[in-house]
Amino acid sequence: MLPHPHEIIEKALQENRAKLLEHEALALVEAYGVPVPGYGLARNAEEAAEIAEKIGYPVVLKIVSPDIVHKSDVGGVIVGLSSPEEVRKGFEEIINNVKKHVPGARIEGVLVQKMAPKGAVEVVVGAIRDPVFGPAVMFGLGGIFIEVFKDVSFRVVPFSEQDAEEMIREVKAYKIIRGYRNIAPRDIDALIRIIMSVQSIMRENKEINEMDLNPILSYEKGKGALAVDVRIILKKQ
Ligand SMILES: Nc1ncnc2c1ncn2[C@@H]1O[C@H](COP(=O)(O)OP(=O)(O)O)[C@@H](O)[C@H]1O
Ligand SMILES: [Mg+2]
What we know:
The chain folds into 2 domains: 5-114, ATP-grasp fold, A domain (Dna Ligase, domain 1); 121-234, ATP-grasp fold, B domain (D-amino Acid Aminotransferase, Chain A, domain 1). It is 35% helix and 27% strand. It contains 8 helices and 10 strands. It has helices at 5-14, 22-31, 45-55, 84-101, 144-147, 161-170, 174-177, 188-204; strands at residues 39-42, 59-64, 77-81, 109-114, 121-130, 134-141, 152-156, 208-218, 225-227, 230-234. The mean pLDDT is 96. The structure holds adenosine-5'-diphosphate and magnesium ion.
């Protein structure tokens, strides 16, 4: 059973952590109906292999640490592992990478996550809480679209489902979402549902200062979307 969102936040605050751990952030958005791939937290290599056997291959391994925000930058993500042997080896490799790149980082364990199917377009949904205007939710396409072109849309909370749809339509990269050359049209309803869930999370959890789902893997019409990485930052108390 999923822990209640409030319990997840309380635990982090008690431990004086501003950042939710990867599995906590995934559980929180899951409680609001955001689809995520199967996952579990492993404390050692054997546990990682057991979780992988349970959720099915291929899997992705990710470092879980309160001190690390960009996991790939420190060798903290390994994708496409297809056997218990690979998972055990991957576990040790991630721990070694992280110890080398971020000496002294606290390590909670390694997230074992089911690898999402191919054929996705990566999108991002984020939110910030402004002290004056309150929360706003952001949408954009992953990678260069946001980082280089700043091609994003925003809505201040509260907004309607129709507003969420407009957010998606008004980014320049909407051309890709609508279907372009060999890219089939995306499942826009699934993206609208995720934007609305993020709005609910920000409205109902005042302790959250910012969050982003980066990436959300967006599949073709009728095939949904999956949030594979969720970052949630709490207000400093
Ligand atoms: N479960 C997954 N299935 C498929 N690809 C994934 C999965 N998890 C992560 N990835 C890919 O790996 C990249 C890095 O992983 P992510 O969890 O976003 O770590 P970080 O952003 O902290 O480096 C993602 O942007 C995505 O392209
Ligand atoms: Mg990410």
